[in-house]
Design goal:
- It contains 10 helices and 11 strands.
- The two termini are about 35 Å apart.
- With about 300 residues, it is an alpha/beta fold.
- The chain is about 35% helix and about 15% strand.
């Protein structure tokens, strides 16, 4: 029997409907969640992504504040914009679009963000809180993976999870989050230095591919009935496509769907969840700010991510 397809677009819209309820509640009290976005340079993918974030904010009751700098800007130029957002009460969340040009010290820029506004979950303080299993903003793509698992009814407690990839944006956070007491998975972290990757993958009840390599995970590497989450987004040249390319994941989908119990497609799986969880974190930041100032917040929201 073919795997159940986890529809990321559908889950993202369900989540956004909940976010709209929360932003409407805040608006009734004179509060509009605000996202400050900093874009350095004119990388087409980054520009497109920022545009998508701003559109999503407008559609779901949030404000966006964009600041742009030229590609030759300095670390100090970017930090100055971050500091401005840190002190702006209309801005509840700050996002610095990555990657930054090579001359900019990315670590210094991220560390300059107020942890209370770090809706990407990348500051050392939020990473430390995540490691200590404390309430914090979770990085958006890993948070999206967890949300898909929850809403699809995939059991994490007691499950063997294998994460293939160790990036600071996806792989490492997922390993950390899945071992939290609220999820209670047993996690194996695999990467380019892993010997006999296939043997590790075959033991996985939950297999998460986030290495950024097309077709890395094949059907014979998947445990029958496992949940396969494909986070890979790889551009493959395709002369027949209008854009000149098509998107493929890290999993060979055609074969995997015949073995897995659940699977995410590419595109349309994990991808739609990333911006959705950014909206969620920004709304949460606004709810927390409102609570600190003694203003009401909607019951059942704002208690922090898992």
């Amino acid at each position: 029997m073919a795997a159940k397809i986890i529809d990321g677009k559908k889950v993202a819209e369900e989540k956004r409907a909940e976010i709209r309820e929360r932003t409407a509640f805040l608006a009734s009290r004179g509060i509009v969640p605000g996202l400050g976005v900093i874009l350095v340079g004119e990388d087409p993918a980054s520009v497109s992504y920022v545009t998508g974030k701003e559109k999503a904010c407008a559609e779901n009751g949030l404000l966006s504040f964009e600041r742009r700098l030229g590609a030759h800007s300095s670390t100090e130029d970017v930090i100055a914009l971050v500091d401005g957002f840190n002190h702006d009460p209309k801005v509840h969340g700050i996002l610095v679009q990555l990657p930054l040009p090579a001359q900019i010290d990315e670590r210094r820029v991220i560390a300059a963000i107020d942890p209370a506004k770090d809706v990407d979950g990348l500051t050392p303080i939020n990473i430390g809180r995540m490691s200590l299993d404390e309430p914090c903003f979770l990085p958006c793509t890993p948070a999206g993976v967890i949300e898909l698992l929850r809403r699809s009814g995939v059991q994490t407690k007691g499950a063997n999870a294998v994460v293939v990839g160790r990036s600071n944006l996806v792989g490492r956070p997922l390993v950390n989050i899945l071992t939290r007491k609220s999820l209670n998975a047993t996690v194996t972290a695999c990467h380019t230095g892993t010997v006999d990757l296939a043997s590790h993958c075959r033991r996985a009840d939950i297999l998460i591919a986030c290495a950024g390599k097309v077709g890395l995970i094949t059907a014979d590497m998947i445990k029958p009935g496992a949940c396969v989450m494909d986070v890979g987004v790889n551009r493959v040249e395709d002369e027949g496509a209008k854009s000149g390319f098509r998107l493929k994941g890290d999993v060979e989908y055609a074969g995997a769907i015949e073995v897995a119990g659940w699977i995410t497609p590419v595109p349309g799986g994990v991808g739609p969840m990333t911006i959705t969880m950014l909206l969620d974190n920004t709304t949460l930041a606004a709810e927390r700010a409102a609570a600190e100032h003694g203003e009401g917040r909607q019951a059942g929201h704002g208690d922090g991510p898992a």
